[in-house]
Structures are given as C-alpha cells and as structure tokens.
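Researcher: Structure for this, please.
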Amino acid sequence: MKILIADSNVMTRKIMANLLTSVGYDVVTVRDGIELLGQLAKGAHAIITELELPLVSGFVVADTVKQLKQPIPIVVVTASSPEEVAALPLPLPPIVSVLHKPVQVKDVLEVVMKLSCPACSDSLKLAIDNNAHFSCSGCHRSWLIKERIEGRLGFVD
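Model: Predicted structure, token format:
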C-alpha cells in the first residue's frame, strides 16, 4: 500500500515515514501541496496531510482528490483543536479521519490499518507493549517496529 505524507515539518514527515515503512508500507513524503498534487498522478492508496500546507492548502488537495475517478482516502493531521476542526467545511469524503497533534503512534497505525486491511476496518484495536511490538485484534497480525519510536509523533507548529 502506497501512502503519501504531506507535512511542512520535516521531522514530522521523517518520523511518520519511518514508522509506516517499518511496518511494511510504501511511503512517499512531500513538503507542500504542489508536490502532493504532482504525486497523485503516480498513484497512492492513502494520503496523510496537514490542512495548512504551503503553496496549495490541504483543502484544495481534498477538493482535487474528490474529483478523481477513484478518490483516495485522506487522513488530516492538525494542530487545531477538535472544536476548530468541527467548524471547518471539510469535504467528507475523501477526508476519512482527523488526527490531532501531537499524534500518537498507535493512532496513526490504527487509521492506516483500517484503510489497508478489510478485516481490521471495523474491529481494529492495536495493542502495544514496551518493546514497540504492535498486534491487531482484527486480523491477528503483529509487527515489531524496527526503530524504537516513542509514543508521540508530530509537533505543534
């Protein structure tokens, strides 16, 4: 499964990419909305993006994705409060989930797994132990994160 990650913060991109590649996903990272739109032509199964992207906003990206023959699910990562996000005119679909910074590793894995694994979509519950070992109650797969990653990703910019 190919995932596009768009975030203006280089560390957020790197951490998310390392996390998702360590559990087997193909990841492409971009720093702005123009790069993200350019990558759409190369195909993707999911997008993780912030709304306040440089050059072209996440709103424009979502509207563009919505017009595709096969819309790509979008996960929004934001530093905005849940109340602020609720007041936004988010195009649903293609936006399927909103994660708030600082993002929990478990939350990122859960939302991506729900998009990639039909067995997990309704019943997914990830368990994590102290050795960065994750297991899924839906499909009973398990992963060991190659590099130890602490419980939080992302930064409040």
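Researcher: Any notable elements?
Model: Confidence is low (pLDDT under 50) at residues 146-157. Strands lie at 2-6, 26-30, 46-49, 74-78, 95-100, 126-128, 133-136, 142-144.
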